[in-house]
Specification:
single chain; 269 residues; alpha/beta; D-Maltodextrin-Binding Protein, domain 2; 2 domains; five-stranded mixed β-sheet; 12 helices; 11 strands; globular
């Protein structure tokens, strides 16, 4: 009887392990509908190639994504570089792949706003996607302060509106004067009316792009399979998520971001 019970428990454990569903989180820089359309084919590809069950999980806002990420709620996650620095420190996430193209923060204004120089931004109303949006919020604020002496935090004239798309639409509608985003989300904006009403006023320096990282609880053989599949992903799928070419990375690739976090200074607890 004891042998039968042991065999039963072992079988249940094996089935449970084999039946594990991998939760893939994507930082919601754009609307959930847009992200599902872009990323679901990638999820289907990963399932087909690796034989693993993978589900896409999109939160309603970047802060909600951060709560799940920092609590270790995703098995695999696509996040911004600053998210990664914190997720690695708090939960041990490890970077696996990223787009070879660097991330660049941008500031957009309405074409008819009369704002045509960065020096004119002092005292203006800013829109940002979230407090910890790396390029869209942190880098643009940082470079405005260091290069132009414009202290956005000190002036306290800014709002967080949950996504990059919300920033672009808000500026187009006059909710704010200037908005932070990134080249990738701006270039992929489907709302042509909004896009045609805006212009990029400023671009930051380029920095290491968003990684796809693994929760340390994910078995090594699964991480290896997923990484291999991502690196060999067809070009059309890579471009469908607005990337150029995926390359392998490791944790040291983001040491530059840690240096910036200290310089800003940013929370790293």
């Amino acid at each position: 009887m004891r042998t039968l019970i042991t065999l039963f428990i072992s079988t249940v454990l094996i089935v449970s392990l084999e039946a594990r569903v991998l939760v893939f989180g994507v930082v919601p820089q754009q609307s959930p509908i847009e992200l599902i359309k872009d990323w679901q084919p990638v999820i289907a590809y990963l399932e087909n190639v690796t034989g693993e069950k993978v589900v896409l999980k999109i939160e309603r806002s970047i802060p909600e994504f951060e709560k799940v990420l920092y609590s270790g709620g995703y098995d695999i996650a696509y996040m911004n570089p600053y998210h990664y620095v914190l997720a690695h420190k708090r939960q041990g996430y490890t970077a696996a792949v990223k787009d070879e193209k660097k991330v660049v923060g941008i500031l957009v204004v309405r074409k008819n706003s009369g704002i045509n120089d960065v020096s004119m931004l002092k005292g203006k109303q800013f829109l940002f996607p979230a407090p910890d949006a790396f390029a869209a919020t942190l880098l643009t604020k940082y470079e405005l302060l260091k290069k132009y002496g414009i202290d956005v935090n000190g002036e306290k004239k800014y709002r967080y509106v949950n996504s990059h798309d919300s920033v672009y639409k808000g500026i187009a509608r006059g909710v704010g004067d200037v908005g932070g985003g990134v080249e990738r989300t701006y270039n992929s904006l489907d709302d042509q009316e909004t896009k045609e009403s805006l212009t990029i006023l400023y671009k930051t320096k380029g920095y290491p792009s968003h990684p796809i990282a693994f929760n340390p609880s994910l078995p090594a053989h699964i991480r290896t399979k997923i990484t291999k599949a991502l690196l060999e992903m067809p070009v059309q799928l890579v471009t469908s998520i607005n990337m150029k070419h995926l390359v392998a990375v490791d944790d040291t690739s983001y040491d530059e971001i840690r240096d910036i976090a200290v310089a800003l200074p940013l929370t790293q607890d």
